[in-house]
Design a protein that fits this description.
The chain is of the alpha/beta class and 316 residues long. The chain has 10 helices and 14 strands. It folds into 2 domains: 3-258, TIM Barrel (Alpha-Beta Barrel); 263-315, Alpha-Beta Plaits, CATH 3.30.70. Bound molecules: iron/sulfur cluster (2 copies).
């Protein structure tokens, strides 16, 4: 598996990053052992980079995997909504304790929206900088669904890593097109920021064209790595093969294809109702202020997903 330096840091990561959201209680709800064993399987197959977040509740899964590994061989990125010294301290302590590790490689501000939100979280950045000096963190960054936050990060040399949403259709980008996003990322790349993309399959909505979707992100020179959720060994096999440019094992592909997919509406649904207006199958309705899907009507087209301003809808 090809490895690249994350921007101008000395942190080397595999091109495929193991996205741990899929195994979390928010999605497939795997046990620490199940998820941890799956991570270990990915690490045995050339992945050395895992992405998590305080929100995902997968520190236990990663901690399980770390017990069976040389810690120095694995790069861990996490993120939290910390905005002050106190909240940042709590987030870092929680990550270190629950993963049972002495340091976190990358600590990101979760879901930044613009230069203004970065400024509003600056006290947390200052805390993380101090912790970086003490060796508890190796790099600081942000994750985002907006072009405005990528542009905001260009103004802060402290932000070394950007974790943006990037996929062929621009699904989930809140304030522009994929071309606009790539233009901003290209500027960030030139400044030496490390960039690892998220949601190359648009949260599962582009699964039918997965090869085309992966070809698209793998061809982007500014993406040092690409985080992809995986929920089974067959998915790890297929993704590793794609990232290594090898032929895909047919039985693994068939097993993935045979797996029953479903639409998932995340619990952070804000109840705006926009998605319900865009489902041609009349499969979405509002119940007690949240969107609910009627699986008997849903054809998994994924169209509703791109209208959700909070990117709550996924096919898993
Ligand atoms: S995936 Fe398609 S059919 Fe299913 S709820 Fe969304 S728009 Fe409707
Ligand atoms: S568009 Fe998103 S936030 Fe709004 S109701 Fe639908 S799922 Fe919830």
């Amino acid at each position: 598996m090809e490895k690249r330096k994350l921007g101008s840091t000395n942190i080397e990561v595999s091109r495929l990053c193991f996205g741990s959201l899929t195994m979390s209680p928010l999605q497939t709800n795997q046990s620490h052992k199940e998820g941890g064993d799956l991570l270990l399987y990915g690490f045995e197959n050339g992945i050395n980079f895992v992405d998590t977040a305080e929100l995902y509740e997968t520190y236990g899964h990663i901690g399980y995997a770390l017990r069976h590994l040389d810690r120095s061989k694995i790069i861990i990125a996490t993120k939290s909504y910390a905005y002050s010294k106190e909240t940042a301290e709590n987030s870092l302590k929680k990550a270190l304790k629950e993963m049972n590790t002495d340091y976190v490689d990358l600590f990101l501000l979760h879901e930044q929206e613009s230069e203004h939100t970065i400024r509003g979280h600056y006290e947390a950045i200052e805390y993380f900088l101090k912790m970086k000096e003490k060796g508890y963190i190796r790099g600081i960054g942000l994750s985002t669904h907006t072009i405005a936050a990528v542009k905001g990060a260009l103004k802060y040399k402290e932000i070394e890593i950007i974790h943006p949403i990037v996929n062929i259709n621009g699904l989930g980008i809140q304030d522009g097109t994929i071309e606009d996003m790539l233009s901003a990322l290209s500027d960030a790349h030139k400044l030496g920021k490390g960039i690892y993309g998220m949601k190359p399959l648009g949260g599962g909505n582009l699964l039918k064209n997965f090869q085309q979707c992966f070809d698209f992100v793998l061809d982007l020179p500014m993406l040092d790595s690409i985080a992809t959720g995986m929920q089974s060994k067959e998915e790890v096999d297929v993704n590793v093969a794609i990232f290594e440019g090898r032929e895909i094992n047919k039985p693994s592909l068939e097993k993935i294809g045979a797996k029953k997919r479903k639409l998932l509406i995340s619990e952070w649904c804000q109840g705006c109702g926009i998605c319900t207006e865009h489902c041609g199958q009349n499969a979405l309705k509002m119940v007690n202020g949240k969107a609910v899907v009627d699986h008997s009507k849903c054809v998994l087209c994924g169209y509703c997903s791109k209208y959700c301003p909070h990117f709550c809808i996924k096919v898993i």
